[in-house]
Amino acid sequence: MSLSQSPPPGESDVAELIARRTLTAVFQPIVDFDGGAILGYEGLIRGPAGTALEAPGALFAKAAREGLSVALEHAAARTCVATFASLGCEGKLFLNFSAEALVALRETRESTIAWIQRHGLAVDRLVLELTEQSAIADVASFAPAVGALRETGIQFALDDYGTANASMNLWVRLQPDVVKIDRFFIHGIAGDPLKFEAVRAMQHFAGASGARLVAEGIETAADLIVVRDMGIALGQGFFIGRPSAQVSRECAQGAREALGAGHIAVFPGATRSPVAASPSGGMAAAKMIVTAPALQKSATNNDVLELFNRLPTLHAVAVVEHDRPIALINRRSFMDRYALPYHRELFGKRPCMLFANASPVLIEKSMTVEQMAKLLASDDQRYLADGFVITDEERYVGLGTGENLVRAVTEVRIEAARYANPLTFLPGNIPISSHIARLVEHRAEFYACYVDLNHFKPFNDRYGYWQGDEVLKFAAAVLADACDPTRDFLGHVGGDDFLVLFQSEDWSERAVRALRAFDTGALRFYADEDRDVGGIHGEDRRGNPTFFSFVTMAIGCVRVTPRERGGVHYGSEEIASVAALAKHRAKQQADGFFVIDLDEGAEQLHLHEPPGAAIHQRAPALG
Question: CDD domains, from UniProt (predicted)?
């Protein structure tokens, strides 16, 4: 059956609907983010208005029960093509087909093409979407059907990518022109780091395969701006335009405003956890293996002594039974015992389990350093001296030392802190620099606000680091509350230094609100007697007795405009340097707030000078 044919009437309700041509078409726009023009429309079908079969779900379910799914799909396509042509629509028409319907369409390719052309529609304006309705049992035999249709000039799309049936296998085998990302990944992407990273992966593969991506299910301005700034070409969803019989010639006003918004999105991936962010977080225990022989459970203490004497650098020996570790003997502990009078004579021929740790720490070689780091917080600290046993599917492969574990965990934590602060979990220096670079690249106007706490060190000295950490977390919460998460980026540089990259138009009100909220709220961290006298007694940096007032917040702001003056290009390091200057000025102000223009600050710091000239008062590098 081709698109130009109908099933015989009277066989069923669905057949009658098709024969009587009571199906109607609606069209949902697909927008090109580059300029906001409508690229085309997805044609969708509806049953008779006011009936139980008006909704497409009910209509196709009934067709499936009656064995008319393919017939209904072809009828839906005929209706969409005829209506689309009669409306004089511009752009491409996207039509949904199951694999079975596409194979059937190939068999009547010539007559179908002729029918479409008679309606005045160029074949190269059609995009056939392979839907997720059913799995393809044999992709190898299905691929030729797709190829035959594409030979006519028709384009091919993979619909609902990310669902069970729209897999990477199909993407690789069928090489679609267009891939439509399932709405699950797009809905809420502005606040979901995992969805963001999943779409990033799809985007990377699309770049390699040459396919264009369509983000389906866009329902909010925040999601649209994130998808736009990711560099995805096309979008579809209720926020852009709802399916309608009256074809929209432009996308909805809210979508037009979002596409034209001057601010850039704050990517949710910037707040991912230190473990996920750190490139070293995936270091596995396999890299820490110390290759060492093991002893059988039947070995004696004399066997242990002989092994330690033969291998003087071996810190411990594992005891195994059927290749599975059951105990660990620490070298130092064992040798100290044997140094006692008569111990060798008394215990030499006794079983080695006598002096063994029968509950050693066992670690699978695939375990990451961050997973192993949980050992550092355990009550059992014997692994520091004994080390631990590394296994592969519970079978012994070697040993690990506590020293190497501590070193590896420390290195991973240091590296991770560059991506996310371990106390506040806010983005660290690398994401901060990356976001500044994106702002500069997109020529966005923003305010880089360097935040510092006055008199924080004396507070720490008086109340201790635990209470100091609570103050830092409170500062982070206050600043986060002042930010619009879709426009304003909040990062933790380190210690009591934060950086806010404001794009909100009311940025100054937000900053002042944060100052007041912190200065008022910080009082609750002081003891009553210190609140009564207005501060605490302590020592300054030279050790002189000094009275310090309460901890307060200072914010130095730099206005960055989307222009280059005199050919000078300011990057993240220069912007951070001027922000640090503004922070120092803010700490000298009674209200703790100071604003400076980037060019003015750069002039004062000589950042405008050519390479090789002296640059003074540079802020610590964010990278």
Answer: CBS_pair_GGDEF_EAL, EAL
- 327, 353 contact by CB (below 8 A): yes
Q: Are residues 127 and 257 in the same domain?
A: yes
According to DSSP, the β-strands at 316-321 and 395-400 are unpaired
Q: For residues 452 and 576, state if they share a domain.
A: yes
pLDDT at 153 over 70: yes
What distances in angstroms separate CA 267 from CA 103, 191, 197, 488, 571, one per listed residue?
41, 8, 10, 10, 19
468 within 8 A of 456, measured Cβ to Cβ: yes
Instruction: State how far the Cα of 587 lies from the Cα of 488, in Å rounded to an integer.
Output: 23
Residue 279 within a domain: no
Asked whether residue 75 is assigned to any structural domain, the reply reads: yes
Please state, in angstroms and rounded to a whole number, the distance separating the CA atoms of residues 347 and 95: 83
User: Do 324 and 238 share a structural domain?
Assistant: no
Range of the domain at 64: 22-261
Residue type, 176: P
Choosing from 228, 261, 294, the residue where a domain stops is: 261
Do β-strands 395-400 and 388-392 pair in parallel, antiparallel, or remain unpaired? antiparallel
pLDDT digits (tens, 9 = 90+) for 183-199: 999 999 999 988 999 99
Edge-first strand listing for the sheet containing 362-364:
362-364, 388-392, 395-400
- 3-state SS, one letter per residue, for 285-346: HHHHCECCCEEECCCEHHHHHHHHHHCCCCCEEEEEECCEEEEEEEHHHHHHHHCCCCHHHH
Q: Are residues 408 and 432 in the same domain?
A: no
Among 86-100, 396-410, 462-476, which is the least confidently predicted range? Answer: 396-410
Instruction: Convert the pLDDT of each residue in 361-399 to its tens digit.
Output: 888 888 876 677 666 556 556 666 678 889 998 999 998
Within-domain flag for 354: yes
551 belongs to a structural domain? yes
Q: Closest Cα partner for 357 from 378, 380, 339?
A: 380
Q: How far is CA 411 from CA 55, 79, 354, 388, 442, in A?
A: 58, 63, 37, 19, 34
pLDDT digits (tens, 9 = 90+) for 499-517: 999 999 999 999 999 999 9
Using the structure block, give the residue that is written with the tokens 């050519």.
610
Asked if 361 and 285 touch (Cβ cutoff 8 Å), the reply is: no
Per-residue pLDDT band for 585 (boundaries 50, 70, 90) equals: very high
Give me the residues paired with residue 25 across strands: 45
Verify that 408 and 318 share a domain, yes or no: yes
What's the number of domains the chain is made of?
3
Alpha helices in 355-421 (DSSP H): 369-372, 383-386, 402-417
Q: Is the pLDDT of residue 413 over 70?
A: no
Query: Is 549:535 a contact under the CB 8 Å cutoff?
Result: yes
Judgement on whether residues 407 and 556 belong to the same structural domain of the protein: no
CATH of the domain at 120: 3.20.20.450
